[in-house]
Amino acid sequence: MAKITFIDHDGTKRDVEADNGLSVMEAAVNNMVPGIDADCGGACACATCHVYVDDAWMGKTGEISDMEETMLDFAEDRRENSRLSCQIKISDELDGLVVTTPESQH
Amino acid sequence: MTADTQPEVIVIVGAGHGAGQCAASLRQEGFEGKIVLIGEEPYLPYQRPPLSKKFLSGELTIERVYFKPADFYETAEVDVRLNTRVTEIDRGAKEVVTEDGTRIAYDKLILTTGSRVRELRAPGADLKGIHYLRTIDDVEGLKTDFTAGKHMVIVGAGYVGLEVAAVALKHGLEVTVLEMEPRVLARVTSPEVSQFFHDVHTEAGVNILYGHAVTEFKGEDRLQEAVLSNGSTLRADIALIGIGILPNMELAEAAGIACHNGIQVDELCRTSDPDVFAAGDCTEHPNPIYGRRIRLESVHNALEQAKTAAAAALGKEKPYAQVPWFWSDQYDLKLQMAGLNQGYDEVVLRGDPTSRKFAAFYLKDGVLIAVDAINAAPEYMIGRKLIGEKAKVAPARLRDINVNMKEVAAG
Ligand SMILES: Cc1cc2nc3c(=O)[nH]c(=O)nc-3n(C[C@H](O)[C@H](O)[C@H](O)COP(=O)(O)OP(=O)(O)OC[C@H]3O[C@@H](n4cnc5c(N)ncnc54)[C@H](O)[C@@H]3O)c2cc1C
Ligand code: FES
Q1: Do B329 and A43 touch (CB under 8 A)?
Q2: Please, which contacts does B252-258 make with residues 24 or more away whose CB atoms are closer than 8 Å?
Q3: Reduced 3-state DSSP string for B193-248
Q4: CA B188/CA B377 separation, integer angstroms
Q5: Is B333 strand, coil or helix?
């Protein structure tokens, strides 16, 4: 179980609780957090679940696969702390995670 | 349409991917009236792609395949009626009629009835052990038979058949795939890419037989053998039939709504009845990028048309103009396809297929019309963008892996 804070591009904060093993994308969708489309449902095929991870958490969100890396490379407004939220797996370690959603997923 | 002519009740028929998105989009568009969502399956809208992938393999639980959690429908005040089949649209009265005779009035009606599997007609086709794959219930049925050591015959080498073959092999089943055409994925890809998938599957241990149809299934009370068109027999403890789908358009057709190869809609997802809209697998729609009418079987199409249909039902214009895209997971391979390759006159390979990381670009008169990318996200992402722009791309640049895709896009 982890608490995750999603911040909109305009600053609105939403806290959600999510079970370990789910992805951060699922935590958003299950709690109706706007700003994440997730067209492919977590298959790492669409890059519409892009988020910016708060710098303090970057080290804890796990490895970025080659596939994710290249998908991100072509996402709108990629930054240092960009991740595909469907590829971040929730664990106790991530309790308190803060991510920001981009203005658009397309 | 002005505020005072806004509909009060919108009924959505069919509770799949498109329907779930329609309900969400109607609320996002600010619709405050009543939404009734009617589906014949016992489940809330769910995602079908995992059915032949991680849900079949057991990596995903059922909760994780739902499109939205149950709370969503409560919060969004969607009146969901499951286990309910709509049998008639009474356009005169503006009502839909369900199986038990209940009549539900609508101001606007959105049809997201999807598609169903094409059935194989052969003697013995109803024996136990013969499966199809379209619904959660289909997977639950298949799973009871999905045990190591069994001989599985898969009829049809389309995506679903090949994805199931990959999962079955991993679960220790012996797998034979029967395909009538001389290559796998014949309907959707080029011979070059078919060859690649043939090699991948045969190296993994799948036995693929081309030019064969099943003429009969044999067994006592359960399937034991499949008889092929050349008279030979194959041991078959279980079979999966994956020979395509048919659009669910009969409900609309019976109501006199124009149908041909699907429910006919325009770029705003309007049918021939101004109060009836349709989205997803069930539609035949115009695609402005290709300048022709098409029918698609993909999540992206269902989602995007649902957004367009929801807007149109509220009198707003959000024309649908999308580059189709699709993905498939087999073994360690992620296939991403964008565009439609029909009518291509040149195929350009970028990268070496034996490295399991390459792309096939399809050109027509020099214009990029489609791409199949295998473990090659840059080719897919840039390809999709260029297809939408109807860009002319020099084959030599596409082929040259020393020119990165961003440079290719820059022209
Ligand atoms: C095994 C499998 C794997 C797939 N993999 C991929 C993939 O990797 N990527 C991809 O993009 N796409 C994939 N697809 C295709 C994708 O799932 C479909 O394109 C998508 O589900 C279409 O959504 P839809 O809402 O149009 O229709 P559907 O999801 O078919 O939903 C329609 C619903 O309406 C119901 N219905 C129909 N008629 C009535 C009626 N009269 N009354 C009440 N209810 C009715 C049906 O029972 C069904 O539940 C896959 C499909 C399958 C089956
Ligand atoms: S949901 Fe599609 S890539 Fe994350």
Answers
A1: yes
A2: B252/B89, B252/B111, B252/B113, B252/B276, B252/B278, B252/B282, B254/B88, B254/B89, B255/B88, B255/B89, B255/B90, B255/B91, B256/B91, B257/B89, B257/B91
A3: HHHHHHHHHHHHCCEEEECCCEEEEECCCECCEEEECCCCEEECCEEEECCCEEEC
A4: 19
A5: strand
CA A71 – ligand 2 centroid, Å? 10
Q: Is B213 exposed, middle or buried (0-12, 13-18, 19+ CB in 10 A)?
A: middle
Residue range B282-309, pLDDT digits in tens? 999 999 999 999 999 999 999 999 999 9
Euclidean distance between the first and the last CA atom of chain B, given in angstroms as a whole number = 43
At A15-28, the pLDDT tens digits run: 999 999 999 999 99
Task: Name residue A30's amino acid.
Answer: N
- ipTM entry: 0.91
Strands ordered across the beta sheet of B103-105: B86-90, B95-98, B103-105
Of A29, A43, A47, the CB nearest to B49: A43
Which residues in chain A (16-35) have CB-CB distances under 8 A to chain B? 22, 26, 29-32
Cα(B383)–Cα(B391) distance, rounded to whole angstroms? 10
- Coil vs helix vs strand at B300: helix
- Give, using CA atoms, the residue closest to atom 3 of ligand 2: A44
**Which residues line ligand 2 at a C-beta cut-off of 6 Å?**
A 25, 38-40, 42-49, 84, 86
Q: CB distance A41–B381 less than 8 Å?
A: no
